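job 3f2a | input accepted
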Amino acid sequence: MIMYFTKGFLLLHTLLAFLLPQFDALQDTLTISKPIRDGDLLVSNGETFALGFFSPGESTNRYIGIWFYKAPEKPVAWVANRDNPITDTSGVLSIDLHGNLVLYGEDRKKSIWSTNIVTNSNDNITLAQLTDSGNLVLFLNETSEVLWQSFDYPTDTFLPSMELGLDRKTGLNRILTSWKSKDDPGIGNFSFILNTNSSSPELFLYKGNILWWRSGHWNGIGWSGIPTLSSNDSVMNFNLFNNEYETSTVWGLSYPGASLSSRLVVNGSGSIHRFVSAISDQEWDILGTVPLDRCDNYGKCGAFGKCQVQNCTEFECTCLPGFEPRSPSEWSARNATSGCVKKHGGASICKGVAEFVKVENVKLPDSSFARVDEKLSLKECERRCLENCSCTAYGGIGVKEEVGCLRWFGELMDTRVLDGGQNLYVRVDAFELGT
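job 3f2a | predicted structure (435 res):
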């Protein structure tokens, strides 16, 4: 009796093994023999991120992307074919004979997207692995040399350990660009870049070709125009690398051991949101948003203007010391974009004695127009600025003004009052001060 029961049980077990679908363990690596088809997933080793096909919002188009695997709402962090969707479920992501990642639709002879790399190796066997940082890495199987990574081609999301900015060795400049809409991940109107064309890099947000917002200069511990990022209780910890090899910024979590997911996203309405979520949470918390208010809009008060958020009845723009509105009629109409000019013309500033007036608690002007001296004391900075008639202002790099300074030559643009801001020393004729 026992023998018949045992044989029957084994027969049933064998039959079920054939009838039930066989699910492999979660895979984090794509190989030439294991492509990803619509409906398949790659899942990172710690089950933090997933890669597969998805349809955003109410769209039926299909895209290959990376998203948070277990976080609330499973937000998408990266999209490969963002401007070239697949209109059905025929998509396949595979590795071709040249070692490239290639995305095909129904027509297997024409690729929709590819990594388009060229290897010098005789062995073109490559693997693509999804890491727990959300980075898809294509590398040579033989040497583990990285050939391509999704972090170098971001979409709208800035993840911890991802770099933004210029790699001078390769010429690659990594920027974020917004989605067109929640239903379309195509390249939108807003781009978030690290300005690498000056001696003092800043983060810029553009709407098309129009500068929309800036972060303020790097003060040694954070971006000066966002004091909350430099505070001791900030969840995000930014760093800047500016040398012969790169000008880039990277960020991480201040508490790396904590079970937190975090991301920075440029949305289609022109805002940058910082999100964080604990594993146990059912939603994402917004840590901060920029632009924050009207004074965060770049150049709100024009050249040599200063912006301070007022109540609804008061105009937020005034002129810096020694300056007056260029167009009083426009200012009366609350339009300050024409900015301010010297009260008695620019020539007098070098004919007589000039002094500096301290303007406290401000986001210092756009440092694209400034010269940086990292080892200069503030006193020496003042002396050098005074010697040059073109020097319009100076300020310390850091809040404590211990060492390092910025000197502006030409216009002072985008100055605003800011809690936790710094001091700006504006050049003014002694005549204006009544001395």
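job 3f2a | Confidence is low (pLDDT under 50) at residues 1-23.
job 3f2a | closed
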